[in-house]
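INFO worker-7 received task bundle
INFO bundle size: 2
INFO processing item 0
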Amino acid sequence: MGAWKLRLLQLYALANRPSGFAACQRGTVAILFGLALFPVALLVGGAVDYSAAVTKKSRLQEALDKGVLAAAAKGAADSALLNRYLNANMPVGISAISATLAVSTAANGAVIYASDATFAVQTAFLKIIGMNSINVGAHSEATLPTQIVTATFNAVSAKGAFAKDMFLWTKNASGAVTSKQTVLSYRYGVSGSGTNPPVGAWTVTFSVPKYSTYGVGMVAYQDLSYQGGLINPVEFYSDVNSASFRKTGNCQDSGGAQYNVEDGGDNDYLDFVYTMKCALGVASNSVARLSK
């Protein structure tokens, strides 16, 4: 037999041996699969750990929100109250944590209650690469809205044959009047005329209850005999009868807001001129709202 024929027979036998090329190929695939299995398992396990951390972070945020709202409702920088609510609503398995409540006042007078809280979530799978925990945190803020809480008035001048009462009103969200306080008066009669309190004298400070909207108004006693009788009262509201009121400035300004009022006579807007100063704050029974 020729040498080349012998070589062909040897190659054919080698290709058909069970422990030959195919067996070597199967062994390589097994090794590669084994090497790839670890990172795949680590990836799946890491996803489980991070999913658990996200769930506990959500519970932490909920618990912190409840604590901040409770402190804001009390109206005090009560970190102990915050932590009682916080730990009472924490996920099972989380040890007690402590947070501090910070209270600040915004430029518009709103009171802001804020806190941050963090804790570590123990891992089940990632610890095999040395990551024993995942830190999660939450931030919460509750705001008590500001409004005008006090107002004072000063008569600048008044004239005319109609007696008048100036008042401060508040309305709820439905537009219904919830309060109406007489703050200044003008009387005209044969014995003379004048304001109460007198021109230049500030009135006492009036408390302003919780409201949706507020404004000023006037009761003009339209006695057409021009004797200053307190008859035929006609009410004017600054939101409904805006043409009867001219306002300059804002009541929060150092000099307050000035109102020029027209009672329906000669349209000179000098029937009552007065200033109104007010202070911002938080009304009683105000409800805190989460802002962050």
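INFO item 0 finished
INFO processing item 1
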Amino acid sequence: MHVELKSFSLNRLLRWTGIGFVILWTIFPIYWMLNNSFKKRVDIFTEQPSLLPFNPTLANYSQLIIEMDFLVTLKNSLIVAAISTIIVVAIASLSAYSLSRYNFKGKKLILLWVILTRIFPPITFVIPLYSLMGSAGLLNTQVALILAYVAFNLPFGIWLLINFFNDIPMELEESATVDGASPFQAYRKIVLPLVAPGIGATAIFTFITAWNEFLYGLIFVQSQELMTAPVTLSGMITEYLVLWGPMSAGGILSLLPMLIFVLFMQKTMVSGLTGGAVKG
């Protein structure tokens, strides 16, 4: 008995040690960036870097917001990420519902093309998308970025939501139809609330991907006032100088909208799971 208890305690110790290491490994880079954002440039380049800023300063945030107008950059990223997320979730939910509920000729081929499109890396689509945007006169606009992010994220959103729709019994919609609801009303009032976790997961994935995307933002937009956060932050690395302080401050500010969105969508996912359990 004593040996089993000792073995159990050792297993718990090893498990929690591993969990603690993973958490530390994940959080420490963010903490180090936060630490550097409050340091003076001289303190950042000391031979013995400190885990805490001894002389904290807001100069990096002041330079970033006032001189570099970084709030406009965050607004650009928020507009592009939010609109593309809304479009992807709306189209993906309707498309996934149709592919899940209806049988038609070419359905398997469409599903194959949906997943194949997502397999290719983003750089594969740069040249055709650039040509299309140029022909439509959309280069150097936020519309170009929104369309690019929708085109890249939509296939994965469809593929992800199909599994959620497949798990919902069709009898629920049939009962609603018998009670006088139209197919769209059954979809909107019965099925859609039950796939809220899937909607939340799709929205989180799309928003984070669009928010962090760098390649399309660098190629499709050239105006400084339209650049997104990743492109602006990369501009702080020059041939002769790296602005570590403002870049760290910009990284922290860029994390906040994404963190708020994820926390908000997590509540939606939890409420969807609870609602599905009650309705089931």
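INFO item 1 finished
INFO post-check item 1: The longest helix spans residues 2-37.
INFO post-check item 1: Residues 2-44 form one domain.
INFO worker-7 idle
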